[in-house]
Amino acid sequence: MATPxxxxxxxxxxxxxxxxxxxxxxxxxxxxxxxxxxxxxxTLVGFGRRVAVPSRMAVxxxxxGVYASNLFFDASQGYRFPNQHLYxxxxxxxLIEWVFILFGPSxxxxxxxxxxxxxxTVPLMWWVGRRWFGPTAGLAAAILCATNDIHIxxxxxxxxxxxxCFWLLLAVYxxxxxxxxxxxxxAVAAGxxxxxxxxxxxxxxxxxxxxxAGLALSWLLDHxxxxxxxxxxxxxxxxxxxxxxxxxxxxxxxxSHGGYTVVRDNHLGYxxxxxxWVDSLRVHSHNQGELAxxxxxxxxxxxxxxxxxxxxxxxxxxFTWNVRVELGRTATFLGIxxxxxxxxxxxxxxxxxxxxxxxxxYFIGSRQVRRLMLGDCPGRQMGTCLLIVAFTGLLFxxxxxxxxxxxAIPLLATTWLGWGAFASVQTITVQNSxxxxxxxxxxRMWFLLVFMIVYLGLCRFDRDLAARHATSLVPGWxxxxxxxxxxxxxxxxxxxxxxxxxDAIKARSAFYxxxxxxxxxxxxxxxxxxxxxxxxxLFARAGEPAxxxxxxxxTGPHAEQNPNFARQFDDVKERLKLVKEYEYQPSDLVWRDxxxxxxxxxxxxxxxxxxx
Length: 612
Hints:
The chain is mainly alpha-helical and 612 residues long. It has 2 domains: 423 residues, no CATH class; 130 residues. It has 27 helices and 5 strands. It has a 5-stranded mixed sheet. The radius of gyration is 27 Å and the shape is elongated. The termini are far apart. The relative contact order is 0.11.
């Protein structure tokens, strides 16, 4: 039954009401049928955006070729792509392999684990947000996740990052449950989720760092949590112990490859350190705008408007004089900001990046917010501490590495939760304010919402944008099929150069692929039976007998960037005849993941050689 003087939390204007957040039991927030309907709708939007136009999906990235090729190797090669252990643990390649076993190899099949993880992250974001900060926070975070173009782009790939983000969020949430419920079973579950993150990517230990730092911060801020520090520490040790125990089999298997030291040394090559931190952050912020489009911005607008939906007023005009003055001040201020932003070079990426981090920065820095979020609810306090350490830690450490756009996905997840917490705070503030103050807050929020829409309309539909996305207004749906067409063209020209029939070139010829795992995958998928990835050209050196069947070599941009290849090629160039050179445009996912500076999209070259 609704409390007198309040909206019913299960209906009416209390559909998304956070009033119960002023109480001490955050778990008592009921899920109304309206909120559940919105959550399901948002999840369906996330599903549709990730599975649309599957004909444009293809294994194209270097790492995708490594992860998707297990099925093409036998026991003598360990049933995996050579040196696969250097790139990631085997969980994602195993999942892709099982999809291929059940449904047959395909480009879309290679994306299935990431697509499923990307879709499941949407309801998980809703649940974590509402458990930590209330219904408004959960829906706002879910909307941002469902509509974010970068998350969608990498959900439609055979890369590890979206799956890692899912396990990371799940592990931190399960640990939160262990602390708030005082139950060791949840700590065990958190350890299992952490181990799955660790089996997905070598940075999968991050939940342990986030939860330990979150505990320390909560002990520092609130004496009530310090009283239970021993039990909290036991929970963390159980989580860490279970994760480490389940991780040990893979760590032990690395001994046959030189141990974890080899993996660590390989990863150190991607560290830019403090000297490159500013440039790396600049590239990350630029990518936010270049890989995001209108639906990402609309997601921001929808999440920002949630507090308004919670408290829509029947009275449209008749404001007091103070509110009218506030109306004029707000309009003048936003007009000036709009003029400045439109004249700012590369404004899209920077503004989107700022739009992501400003609410969570406000959330961390505001005394009012700290009092509201850390005051009376231990569960909300622990969620706040976990969010703060996750955001600040990832914001600091992510730019220490080469600015791969995919490395920003866990950081993006923290900003979505931060936006949700911000929206929840606004809702609570409006609900607890006097009528005139509430009207001022409403006006500010409506003006900010209109400002975002106007800015979007003025700066997102420029000439450069139209030219850049002429074929796909949604970056996540951009076609990645050029590499498939290149592989088919190489097979056709090899047939012509070897004077063989189509089926004969696939069955009675051999292809060597230097430094292009994705091209290797496409050749195997096209039916070529004898394909070998190589990192040397010993098969073509002088003195080797002429091959009994036509033998071809395929090279690409990674060979061009490898100084060892140039030296090897000079030694064997007399035995290599160029059959054909192909040009293709890599997708945004590939070329932005491989460059250090903000450049225009390059043209990649694939060369087909016949071994004489």
